[in-house]
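Q: Hi! First time doing this. I have a protein sequence and I read that you can turn it into a structure. Is that right? Here it is:
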Amino acid sequence: MPNAHVLGCYQSTSIFDGVQPCALQASSHQMKQPLGIGILSWFAALASAGMFVSIALAILDIGPHLMGGEKVTRSEWLHIAAPLVAVIACPMALIAYGLAARKAWSRHLVMAIFVLIIVYASALGALNVLRHTIMWRAIVNASLFGCASACYFYFKPNIAHYFRKLGGR
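A: Yes, that's right. Below is the predicted 3D structure, encoded as structure tokens:
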């Protein structure tokens, strides 16, 4: 086998790391991923898959159709909730990848999802397309979970430090 210094020591250690010089690999392995981030990456992947499954189930008219805890017709769900669910499922898959691949941008994308939900619910509520009880529930839930996520990703010391280190690579 050729010497590593002759090849420039480019190698991959996982499917998410890609090919990196050894110096970057060494620094990325010195920084241990917090357990919560690993759990969240799996949760995001499962949530993304579940969102696409929920759209398929609604198209096939299987199961109840709920928005904001209230029963709605299949048509209402497909016209109002399905577009948002589909739009959120894609960034959710990116979040799963970003967290697993140790990308600094992944925490910003988490926050963007909550902003998207608030904007979508506000717009549909203002246009009287969405029942106001459902609109307010979406806004309140997204605000509360968004604040909790901001506290976790930006203000929890070990998590904020982890992402700052990732951004510095």
